[in-house]
Amino acid sequence: MVSVPTARCRAVLLGLVADGLFGEPPAATHPVARFGTAMDGLERRWWADRRGPGAGYATVGVGAALLLGALIEEWVGETIALGAAVWVSSAGRALVEAAQAVEQRLAAGDLDGARAALPSLVGRDPCGLGEDEIARAVVESLAENFSDAVVATAWWGLLGGAPGALAHRASNTLDAMVGHLDARHGRFGWAAARLDDLLGWPAARATALLVALAVPGRAGAIWRAVRLDAPRHPSPNAGVAEAAFAAALDLRLGGTNRYGARRETRPALGSGSSPTGADIGRAIALVRRTTVLLELALAAGWLVARLADPDRRSDRDVTTVGGRG
How does pLDDT run across 127-137, given as a tens digit for each residue? Predict the structure, then answer.
């Protein structure tokens, strides 16, 4: 079977549109939530303070996602499988809604409510954070998670179909579960964290490009921030996305984050002012504008491919080469 790129553009586009219209499936039936529960149980049985068991754990999780994607493709065809995989793997609408919940509480002067809503977006400890630090956390999370949950999903869906989209989502989920540098996961989570860095690398750069296209008047500042500021960030991907957002919005991100007893000081990204509650709405608008650009690019890819081959019999999932279609 030979994959038809036109069908993948269409399927990824429809998956992103479905996420924007309907959001994520209910938590009780969400495949990613089920995956997380299963991998949490596996971690309790396999955990050891060594990299080897952690590498096996990551391999099993991502391998299971690849296999599931391949089986679904065989069952329903590539287009339907990929559209569904992108829908359940992306989280653009949920990301925006979580940011809006924090924004609304800050606008109402409800700092305690904003702190309570923050963990749906970030892993840092919200206790004691003021408005500026809460706003910074939201903007940074919007940038990083837009790259991980929207752009990377589209990227790996285009390259690898449903198996690619699901494998990336599995890797990203495992990184969130065990990839952090605490006493339990420093060694065990090493493989999951490095794999997620590898799979997220192209999408982070694509995110910076999309942001520059969305705010062309700040393209020079975005380029400088990505080139000069992002390399000092501990994450090779989050730093790029956050630097692009910081420069596009003329903000300065970075600072000290607290994760329980652990503190991390992140470098400054961008040269603007510190974020305030009002900047959350601007960051949400940037996410929406950049998502539309991504969807337009997919639609253009679909249209160009069709116009380049007007005699194609159909825009099916696969073409038949001496075998079953």
Answer: 889 999 999 99
DSSP 271: S
10 Å Cβ neighbour count for 265?
9
Residue in this structure with the two tokens 């752009």, named with its chain if needed? 151
- Per-residue pLDDT band at 269 (split at 50, 70, 90): very high
CA nearest neighbour of 62 among 159, 131, 147, 164: 164
User: Around 118, how many Cα atoms within 13 Å sit in the side-chain half-sphere?
Assistant: 29
Residue 230 near residue 239, CB atoms below 8 Å: yes
pLDDT, tens digit, for every residue of 145-195?
Answer: 999 999 999 999 999 999 999 999 999 999 999 987 777 888 999 999 999
Element at 282 (helix H, strand E): helix 277-308
Instruction: Show contacts of 228-237: CB within 8 Å, 24+ apart.
Output: 229/267, 229/268, 229/269, 229/270, 230/269, 232/267, 233/266, 233/267, 233/269, 234/264, 234/266, 235/144, 235/197, 236/197, 236/201, 236/204, 237/144, 237/147, 237/148, 237/197, 237/200, 237/201, 237/203, 237/204
**Residue 269 contacts residue 254 (beta carbons within 8 Å):** yes
Q: Is the pLDDT confidence value at 4 over 70?
A: no
Question: ∠ at Cα 22 (279, 147), nearest 5°?
Answer: 45
pLDDT digits (tens, 9 = 90+) for 26-62: 877 888 989 999 999 999 999 999 999 999 999 999 9
* Structural tokens at position 30: 């969400």
pLDDT given for residue 311 in this prediction: 56
Q: Which residues pair with 253 in a beta bridge?
A: 269
